[in-house]
Amino acid sequence: MSKLPLGCAIAGLLAFAAPAAMAQPASPGPASPGPGPREVPARSLPVPTAPSPQVQRLIAAPLRQGWNTPPTTPEGWRALAEAGAAATRLGLPGLRERLKVDVEAAEMGGVKVFRVTPREIRPEHRNRLLIHVHGGCYVLNPGEAGLPEAIFMAGFGGFRVVSVDYRMPPEAYFPAALDDAMAVWKAALQTNDPRNMAIFGSSAGGALTLEMVLRAKAEGLPLPAAIAPGTPMSDVTGVGDSFQTNGLVDNVLVAVDGFCDAATRFYANGHDLRDPLLSPIYGDLRGFPPTILTTGTRDLLLSNTVRMHRALRQAGVEAALQVFEGQSHAHYYRDDTAPESREAFTEIAGFFDRHLGK
Amino acid sequence: MSKLPLGCAIAGLLAFAAPAAMAQPASPGPASPGPGPREVPARSLPVPTAPSPQVQRLIAAPLRQGWNTPPTTPEGWRALAEAGAAATRLGLPGLRERLKVDVEAAEMGGVKVFRVTPREIRPEHRNRLLIHVHGGCYVLNPGEAGLPEAIFMAGFGGFRVVSVDYRMPPEAYFPAALDDAMAVWKAALQTNDPRNMAIFGSSAGGALTLEMVLRAKAEGLPLPAAIAPGTPMSDVTGVGDSFQTNGLVDNVLVAVDGFCDAATRFYANGHDLRDPLLSPIYGDLRGFPPTILTTGTRDLLLSNTVRMHRALRQAGVEAALQVFEGQSHAHYYRDDTAPESREAFTEIAGFFDRHLGK
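YS: structure for the whole thing
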């Protein structure tokens, strides 16, 4: 019997629930503290070797400077958004050329949009239209700075895309972004069969994608044929294990209580963060269209994404999940030359192809 | 311009690849070390709140004692396996009763098996049969100790299951486990249509599931209609970011270079660990049957699982992925009273139902 406790402790681990006495060893050693929080020592995480060199470069980048010193005034947020947008705009001409996509400013339903059109629309996509809602914690990426993901989708997927340039704080607060996106959706319904349309977006755009479906359900509007919320801010109440496990591991969002949570509160403007129109995981998900979700193993929103996937499956929704090795938040649309970027958007396009036009 | 570097650093993070000058801030502060390994400070990870109380209890359990002091002799391994098996066996009568499953020892193709049969077989499953290959790092869980997952599947899914009690070291080494599993597969083909059969298993059993398909392809044997490798040991060469990120976070396998890696080397017996029959991710995956993979966000094999999923998708295989919040390695078959356990196996059963009998 003297071997039993050790044997249980080790060998039981690939087996099923050991009896209660086994689940908690009677005399844990110093390396095995009692039940409760997990104490993890300081570690040096090497750059993983399986991703492409391009993604390895993204992973190897340091934590974003200033992630935990967000602006504290409306003017500060506006300046931050503008500075970031200026930087992103520098990369757009090259991106458009490499992916052979044209962009045109327009208006739909009284809302500013960009028409993002591949120079070669796939024949089977001629009558199809995707609506894109960009990310940026509801505050960042104004104007053309919201376009990169739309250009990736148009270029890799061969779809026409309309990207919503929704109003953001300090110009307008919750639910202005959603209102604008819905105005575009209603306008799109005037001239498009919803069976030929899908909605997609990442981060805040992933949340807005889900919120649009909740709102459309509530208003009795037709739903899109499919949606692709990428690493969605589906729960902004702080619930989610990866907020802790991937804290200071994700080099994009970095950790909780940084700029993104501050931006979300700035947008919410005092509104309850548990409202399903801010944390859609708490909404009624029954009847949602087929959904494909994308995340990475180092994503601060890994839990937001996989919990949303499980919630959709539990609601009886056809839902697919793709998780990319080593990637932090939304790394899949950071470098159009990374094979994983093409892979992610090809997967989403294929999912749309299986569900549109039915 | 003075705001630009900060603006880029923060706001670029939700946008696409900033120009090279932006990707690496010119003068990183002390909190943002240069590119390379990620230095993560010591942390205390609270028990996540979203999982069920049962799963929270599994997550709160301390790291397994003895995880990094594996046996060093054949006798030591045998004693460890026996001790663990004795502990697991204690829980089996209750498990069988709660899930209403009967177990009978038998033999197929000259190999010891257990017939694991639900007292109520679903009518649509009357002609269907699942083959189960248990986990335990190729060395642990002999005899009935390999049955818990099979009982979960039979009970939650309403399927007849045959669980392979394959030979293990020190009785027999690589590829004995696979040889035994293939002998059972061939025997099953004598009396069952492969369109009515699936193969499943977790950990080493997940790897064996994949290895069986590789071997069946190579031998020109019929393939199963679907497979469900759970948190598979699909790459035992050490490649996989979660070996690092979830090291000392996963309380089941705990970390690399522990007992499981030692057990795998014991089984491999000097054979190249990169052989696809030990690391199936390196095999030719074209033509694989529809596959559903299961893991958890704290799983040391999270990367093994999601990389396998991506590799299957890239090979054109229909492949689904489910990831459970906060769970360590194979937590989904540790407590049959956890709603997540029912959820995981119901999802797998539904996947089998969509693909069997076609």
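YS: worth flagging: The CA atoms of residues 19 and 194 of chain A lie 53 Å apart.
IM: good catch. Also Chain A touches chain B through 118 residues (CB under 8 Å).
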